[in-house]
Amino acid sequence: MPNHLIYIVMDSCRYDSYVRAKTPNMDRLAAGERRYSYASWTSPSHYALFMGIVPHQSPKGVFASEIYKEEFRKWVDRLGISNLSFKTFVPELSLAKVLKGYGYRSIARVSMPVLNQFTALNCHFDDYRLMDNHNDFAGMVKELDLTGETPRFCFFNLGETHYPYMLEGENLPHISGVHGVFKAMDDLMGDAEDAEADEFFPLEEMQRLHQQQVRCVEYVDGLIGDLYEKCPENTYFIITADHGELFGEDGYFGHGPIMHDKCFEVPFIEGMRP
Question: Which of 30, 80, 101, 213 counts the highest number of beta carbons within 10 A?
Answer without folding.
Answer: 213
